[in-house]
Amino acid sequence: MRQTSFAEMHCSLARSLDLVGDWWSPLILRDLFLGARRFDELVGDLGISRNLLTMRLTALVDAGVVERTPYQERPVRHGYSLTEAGRDLVPILLALTAWGDRWAGLTEPPITFRHHDCGHAFIPTVRCSECGAEIKADDVDPVPGGGARVAPGTRLVGDFLARRAQGVE
């Protein structure tokens, strides 16, 4: 059972992790993206216990990331699919997969990705929404946003604001 909740932190990353940051959720989302729709398909592919899968799916449905739709009445059975919020997570999962291909010690990637529009296989990357350049850690300057404030999980943003107000950056 989860020991810590980030739901009250004033931090977009912390709140995102609160919704989908356990070990199983990204794998469930990946399987739904790959076409799994039924509970037993998820159990079979992931080897997850039925109880734990029920808890994770319930949390993902409650978070608005996964949609649950009945496909059978007697007994009632449900299918699962990604919502718009869930589909918006797919590029993040792809980028994390690419990171794993590079750094997690596999000799060959277990899956590759092909872009519908051009038909080419590609390596998922994070790119600037404005110029299209690939983003690397050294290329980014964090700047407080409109919602920045000193709060749990964002103290560093508050420290940055204080240094900026003093003219020290």
Polypeptide structure, described:
- The model has no long low-confidence stretch (mean pLDDT 89).
- This protein has a single domain (12-130), classed as Winged helix-like DNA-binding domain superfamily/Winged helix DNA-binding domain (Arc Repressor Mutant, subunit A), CATH 1.10.10.
- The protein is mainly alpha-helical and 169 residues long.
- It starts with 11 loop residues before the first helix and ends with a helix.
- The protein contains six helices and four strands; from the N terminus they run ααααββαββα.
- The strands form two sheets. The protein has a two-stranded antiparallel sheet with strand order 1-2.
- Strand 3 (113-114) and strand 4 (121-122) form a beta hairpin.
Note the topology:
Layout: H1 12-20, H2 24-33, H3 39-46, H4 50-62, E1 66-72, E2 77-82, H5 84-103, E3 113-114, E4 121-122, H6 155-165
Antiparallel strand pairs: 1-2, 3-4
Main features:
169 residues, two-stranded antiparallel ribbon, 4 strands, Transcriptional regulator, HxlR family, Arc Repressor Mutant, subunit A, transcription regulation
Q: What's the gist of this structure?
A:
By secondary structure, this protein is mainly α.
Biggest sheet descriptor: 2 strands, antiparallel
- Alpha-beta content class: mainly alpha
What are the low-pLDDT stretches, counting only 5+ consecutive residues below 50?
none
**Count of domains:** 1
